[in-house]
User: Fold Amino acid ABC transporter ATP-binding protein from Salininema proteolyticum.
Amino acid sequence: MPKQVELHDLHKHFGKLEVLQGIDLTVERGEVVCVIGPSGSGKSTLLRCVNLLEKPTRGKIVVDDFDLTHRDANLDLARRSIGMVFQQFNLFPHMTVLENVTVAQRKVLKRGAAEAERTALDQLEKVGVAEKAAQYPSKLSGGQQQRVAIARALAMEPDLMLFDEPTSALDPELVGEVLRVMRRLADEGMTMIVVTHEMAFAKEVADRVIFMDGGVIVEQGPPREVLEDPRTDRAKSFLQRVLEV
Ligand SMILES: Nc1ncnc2c1ncn2[C@@H]1O[C@H](COP(=O)(O)OP(=O)(O)O)[C@@H](O)[C@H]1O
Ligand SMILES: [Mg+2]
Assistant:
């Protein structure tokens, strides 16, 4: 399988705080990797480094054979192929759903209005919220807003999707509709790195689960191994705590 993402000895410091302490990770094209681990273990920082929302202190990031950490790298170009979905949706409140999904297509990809709208409506249709196109985000449920955020990312035709706890801000009854959209995306072959606490989703959809703690990858492997038969005490005690809730 061709490699989609390669992280080599990735470090990130915030002042004296070493949030990532040497991450090596390869993600293959079409692979779905779920990242689990306690709060503060560096999961969000890792995702944010992959698309250079955070600049790593040290190490190398290669996406699609493109070295993002090279000093001459064209980051705007590279970022276009990476979609990101956040816990808090991050839709623009003053724009309609349709405008939210067309604005980056217009500005970044320079698509004309008609093409951008067609693409937007196609994607909104796919995530099941096309009928909300003319609404403002505040009129939508959290689950609908998150599906719009996914449609917005997909409208840019990314090769890689990063999800940072996409269902953590949702009421429990709305989690399923977002996970269903993500599962279909995985089935369609999208390469995905998903930070999540949804262990059932990870077990079912992930090709690989990564357990992070203290800025390092402590354990990784097939979901059944990592989630049901973890080798390390740190993973064991984390999973015990998560499953108690
Ligand atoms: N911009 C920042 N400046 C300073 N510290 C940060 C910043 N972003 C994250 N951190 C710290 O880095 C650590 C890891 O954070 P984060 O990557 O958000 O962990 P996780 O997503 O696993 O909860 C935390 O201690 C957090 O407070
Ligand atoms: Mg986080």
